[in-house]
Amino acid sequence: MLAENSYGKSGIRLVKVLRRGGRHEFRDVTVAVSLEGDFEAAHVAGDNRAVLPTDTMKNTVYSLAQDHLDGAIESFGLFLSGHFLDHNPPVRLARVALFEHPWERLVVGGKPHPHAFRRPGGERRVARVTRTREGAAVEAGLEGLTVAKSSSSAFAGFLRDAYTTLKETHDRILATAIEASWKYAAPGDFDAAFAEIRQTLCDTFAGHESASVQHTLYAMGESVLEKHPEVTQVRLSLPNKHHLPVDLSPFGQQNRNEIFVATEEPYGLIEATIRRK
C-alpha cells in the first residue's frame, strides 16, 4: 500500500527588485513547495488528473511574487500556502520553505548607494510555513551566522576514558556557524521579530561565560524565550569550529595562546530544542 507521500518543486530561485523611486531594494529568495493529499491514483494507476505540475508551482511562485513579495518572507509563505490549498481540492497540506540570501547596500563616497549592492558571507534567513485546512504554523530562523569569540570560553571537567587525549582549557576560542529556528505562537511583525531575535542570539553568545558549547547553546535559547514572548520554542544547531593551539616548541617558542590552526573537519555538533514548559 502507498504510505506517506508528497511532491513539489524545490530550488525556485527568485530575485525581485522593489523600485521605490530612485532607491531600490534587492530581494534574493529560494522557495520550495511541497504538497500532501489525495494522490494515490497517480502513484498506483498512473492517473494524473489530481496532480498539479511542479512546473506550475514554479510559475505560481514567480507570478504571485510580483504583487505579494513586498514584506517578510513569512508573510509571502503564508500567502503561497493558502493559494495552493485554496485552488487545489486534492491537497490536504501545503508546505512552503523560503530561504532569503541577504544583500547589503554598497557605500560610495561615504553614502549608501541607491541601487548597488554586495552579498556578504553565507548567512541566510529561513521561513517554513505548514498549512492545512484547519490553520497554519510558521517557523522562522537563520543559517550560516558565523560568530567567534576569543575569550570567555572553557571546556574542562569532562568525562575521560582510555581514548581521551583532549586537554582541559579554561581560555579558548569559541567559534560556530549558528543554525537556529523558532516557532511563533501567532502571526505578527515578522521582520521586526527576526531582527530582534537574531540580535538576542548574538548578544547572548558574546556575553555568556561559556563552560561548553552546550552551556552557551542553552543560554541562547533561554534568552530568546525570555525576551520574545511570541516564540514558543527555539531549536539551535551549533557546529564547533575548532581552533587548535599550534605547538611552537620546535621553534624554541612558547605559544602565548595567540597562534591557532582553524580546522574544518572533523567537528563537534551540538543541537538542542528549548521550549516553554
Helix and strand sequence: EEHHHEEEEEEHHEEEE
- The gross shape turns out to be globular
How would you sum up the major sheet? 8 strands, antiparallel
Number of helices: 5
Helix content: 10-25%
The number of E-state strands comes to 12
What's the N-to-C terminus distance? 39 Å
Oligomer: single chain
Q: Output the strand order for the largest sheet.
A: 1-2-3-6-7-8-9-12
Query: What is the mean pLDDT?
Result: 97
As residue ranges, the low-confidence spans are: none
**Beta fraction of the residues?**
35-45%
Output the structural class: alpha+beta
Rg estimate, integer Å: 23 Å
Please explain how this structure is put together.
The chain is an alpha+beta fold and 277 residues long. 24% of the residues lie in helices and 40% in strands. It has 5 helices and 12 strands. The strands form 3 sheets. It has an 8-stranded antiparallel beta sheet with strand order 1-2-3-6-7-8-9-12. Helix 2 (54-68) packs across helix 3 and helix 4 (190-207) runs antiparallel to helix 5 (213-227). It starts with 6 loop residues before the first strand and ends with a strand. The relative contact order is 0.11. The model has no long low-confidence stretch (mean pLDDT 97).
State the main characteristics.
5 helices, alpha+beta, 12 strands, single chain, 277 residues, eight-stranded antiparallel sheet
